[in-house]
Amino acid sequence: MGIPPIEVRREDITSVVALALIRALNDELSARYPEPGANHFRLDAQEVAEGTGAFVVAYDGTRPVGCGAIRRLDRDTAEIKRMYVDEPARGRGIGRLVLARLEAEAHTLGVRRIVLETGVRQPEAIALYARAGFFQIPAFGEYLGSALSVCMGKEL
């Protein structure tokens, strides 16, 4: 009877499970970045619909423990959004599994480059992305001029 593996699968971003994980992520980010305008929470359901992106949830058995999204920005580029792992589940490689699934979704979308934004007060996220081959890039889109943002990218 081994420990069941973590399963990462697509989930509707409007589901109860997805909304609970996103709420937990937003609460954590608001605590780390209390400054007005410091957080970039927007992600619309159509941005993660089949063919334009994906929202995925990591399950430890039946318990949702993490999530992430990818949305197409243009023909060649997609953006990672809403990466989160529940605090009690951290340190088990779940973030790495979610990120790998999002990279697989990027391949399905046919993009050649993935970009993301994280924050200066999230060294664990920066380290995760760097280990996965992401490197720091200039700020883009809604993150231009944000002193608290760290933007990263990866060629596929």
Which helices and strands appear, and what pairs or packs with what?
Blueprint: E1 6-10, H1 16-32, E2 53-60, E3 63-72, E4 77-85, H2 94-109, E5 113-119, H3 123-131, E6 135-136, E7 149-155
Parallel strand pairs: 4-5
Antiparallel strand pairs: 1-2, 2-3, 3-4, 5-7, 6-7
Report what the structure shows.
27% of the residues lie in helices and 31% in strands. The chain has 156 residues and is α+β, with helices and mostly antiparallel strands. The protein has a domain of 106 residues: Aminopeptidase (3-Layer(aba) Sandwich), CATH 3.40.630.30. It has a 7-stranded mixed β-sheet with strand order 1-2-3-4-5-7-6, sandwiched between helices. Strand 4, helix 2 and strand 5 form a beta-alpha-beta unit. The termini are far apart.
Mean pLDDT: 95
* Spatial strand arrangement across the major sheet: 1-2-3-4-5-7-6
CATH level-two architecture of the domain at 6-111 = 3-Layer(aba) Sandwich
Gyration radius, in Å: 15 Å
Distance between the termini: 38 Å
What is the H-and-E element order?
EHEEEHEHEE
Assembly type of the chains comes to single chain
CATH superfamily of the domain at 6-111: Gcn5-related N-acetyltransferase (GNAT)
Q: Largest sheet, if any?
A: 7 strands, mixed
Count of individual helical segments = 3
Q: What gross morphology would you assign?
A: globular
